[in-house]
Amino acid sequence: MHRILVADDETGIREIIREYAEFEGDFVMEAGNGLEAVNICKTQDFDIIVMDVMMPKLDGFSACKEIKKFKDIPVLMLSARGEEYDKLFGFEVGIDDYVVKPFSPKELMARINVIINRNLNKETAKASGALEFTGLKVDMAGREVYVEGKKAELTPKEYDLLFYLIKNQNLALSREKLLNDVWGYDFTGDDRTVDTHIKMLRNSLSPYRDYIVTLRGVGYKFQVKEH
């Protein structure tokens, strides 16, 4: 049984999600606005939050940022808007998926289950110090990377860059943020430094180079794709 918080100011939307979630044996709590969702999360734990963007008192993006300050709960964002900017902004504030209304309840539940299972796998991997993505194994504690069982020889900065991307999996990371957080605020390089190291890292990860996704005009993110 999974614990799900559904935050949406539309009663009908909350009822539909509750009906399908409870049919699968999940427990559901509801919030009618972003502020209520934040307050509930202060006293309750959930496996995932399904959050609408446009809500009274506090919008979904702001509520997500507030919740992320004190709890690391996966968030699936709902919105009537499907613009790329909204999706990228959502990933920047830490959401795990973005679904545009109207949506298929069955597809929504499938996405919810994928996110929950992925998060459970990440927690298990953290405990063991290793992460596996199909044929790519990353041992952060031992600073080792294996591609289809063969150890990859990465430069120290490639290790740092890959580990940072993985720790922020599915989040849009600008070149500036990568420079600041991976190279340091006093680094005097420019965006080309990031692009060069991304190219080197992709070559080292082949055939899993496409796990590092280019976000045109923004930067990069680490996203696992089916092979």
Automatic annotation (TrEMBL):
Q: Which residues bind DNA?
A: 128-224
Q: Which residue range or ranges hold the OmpR/PhoB-type domain?
A: 128-224
Q: Which domain of life is it from?
A: Bacteria
* This protein's record includes keyword Chaperone: no
Against SMART domains, the record matches this protein to: REC (SM00448), Trans_reg_C (SM00862)
GO annotation terms (biological process): regulation of DNA-templated transcription
Q: What are the record's GO terms for cellular component? A: cytosol; protein-DNA complex
Q: Where is the Response regulatory domain?
A: 3-116
- Indicate where the modification 4-aspartylphosphate is found in the sequence: D52
Q: Which UniProt keywords apply?
A: DNA-binding, Phosphoprotein, Transcription, Transcription regulation, Two-component regulatory system
Q: Which GO terms describe its molecular function?
A: phosphorelay response regulator activity; transcription cis-regulatory region binding
Q: Which SUPFAM superfamilies match?
A: C-terminal effector domain of the bipartite response regulators (SSF46894), CheY-like (SSF52172)
Function summary: May play the central regulatory role in sporulation. It may be an element of the effector pathway responsible for the activation of sporulation genes in response to nutritional stress. Spo0A may act in concert with spo0H (a sigma factor) to control the expression of some genes that are critical to the sporulation process.
> Protein name, please?
Stage 0 sporulation protein A homolog
